[in-house]
Amino acid sequence: MKSIDNLFDLLNQTTSSPVSRQQFLKTAGRGLAVGAVGSTLVGCDKKPETTASSAPATVDTPSGPVPKLPATSPPAEVPADSTKPIELEQIKAKTEQQEGSTPTPLTADQRVGYAIVGLGHLTLNQILPAFGAAKKSKVVALVSGSPEKMKKVAAQYGVKKESCYSYADYDKLRDNKEVQAIYIVLPNGMHAEYTIRGAQAGKHILCEKPMANSAQECQAMIDACKKADRKLMIAYRIQYEPHHRIVRDMIQDGQFGKVKSIMANNGQNSDNPDHWRFKKALAGGGSLPDVGLYCLNTIRYLLSEEPTEVMGYIHSTPNDPRFKEVEEQVNWLMKFPSGIQTSCATSYGHHDDKNYKVLADTGWIKMDPAFPYTGLQLETSQAQGKENQIVQHKISDVDQFATEMDHFSECVLENKVPFTPGEEGLQDQKIMEAIYQSAREGRPVRLAAVNKKDAFRGPMPKES
Ligand code: NAD
């Protein structure tokens, strides 16, 4: 180790323009900071040299030794073990909460490149920021009807100018080799057309929920993706989220005995009658396909079973300009083969409320809220001697859009069937159509019996 005097002497021996001791001391702090990223000389005209040695050196300063990091250049190629977590030294006592292994994101070149179609609320507020947390997915192209907005978004997320497309140019995505997958975030009534055209352009499709406006459209989307040999996944974020996964395990492991019934509710007070959500052709329906779908899809996921009968009731406030074309409120019952009965409610007309409660013979499981992007709360109750023990489970949030996109990327990279493929969206659509039919006809509607568990899902995601 060299003292500050040694360094001063060394400097004046090696430079062609000697510096005074005063000058040297004035610049030493600044120069040593430069040294921390790999330079060796300070306070002189001479160009800093980079250290060739890989072993970290240290220099003594008046405040003690400062480690000097070895100079590094980017590795020429990706190391073979890049998917193994980097080992860091232990800094917490073993009795403390641990950080777990370091993340192992894929390198930029290995990630699946996405084109995002539609730059509305969900894309700007959730999906684009989620790429920051994604490990296997990257955004490489945008499709929008608003060139000004797209220019801004492209600059914010580093998308190239030539990878920004208008709706008229959508099919040109075919020629963009960086795009492997298209994420469709358009009004529901446009999902079918853009899925089919996207698959025909040779891209894999991740499509927002609800899958489409009718079972017929859903089937056409599945067929088009099969014909083009492209993958199709419906973006059911709840099925890629740890709280709901834990509830599914609790139910299926029988932790609270046999489940008898589930009550689920997803409603909010929506406004703006001019928005596409209140236009039948673009939305397909009102609260049911938009938010009520979460109750239906989550219950099917938790139970792995399919309902055999539904009974629905619909009400819309008369003369409310929002509900001229789509419904305000739907309440419905479902019967499952195991005897479980469920009761669900959805609305566009009441204050935000999103939750469910599973009633089993030896306990209950409650998630409230259950369907927002963050802040989910899981609580369970079970008798312990003379007490009913109520437990609040602390589970960290994940970025639901990042986990969902990364699952789809993994399916593309490893040629696997997505956990929530098109068939899963089609089944929800069939059940919603039966609920509407039941409400219209004022009678229960029976559904085709499905005996297999998780009949419409692919293999469970690795990371769950
Ligand atoms: P939004 O209205 O904010 O965005 C829709 C985008 O589509 C806008 O950029 C709009 O300009 C564009 N668009 C193109 N053609 C249009 C047309 N003819 N009419 C209207 N808009 C048109 O909607 P959003 O809330 O972002 O929802 C988009 C999709 O995402 C919907 O299918 C919705 O159900 C789904 N969504 C899913 C979640 C989730 O949690 N997974 C949450 C919200 C929305």
TrEMBL record:
Residues 64-77 have a biased composition (Pro residues). Keywords: Oxidoreductase. Residues 43-82 are annotated as: Disordered. SUPFAM superfamilies: Glyceraldehyde-3-phosphate dehydrogenase-like, C-terminal domain, NAD(P)-binding Rossmann-fold domains. Residues 248-447 form the Gfo/Idh/MocA-like oxidoreductase C-terminal domain. Residues 113-236 form the Gfo/Idh/MocA-like oxidoreductase N-terminal domain. PANTHER family: OXIDOREDUCTASES, TRANS-1,2-DIHYDROBENZENE-1,2-DIOL DEHYDROGENASE. Belongs to the Gfo/Idh/MocA family. This is Gfo/Idh/MocA family oxidoreductase. The lineage of its organism: Bacteria, Pseudomonadati, Bacteroidota, Cytophagia, Cytophagales.
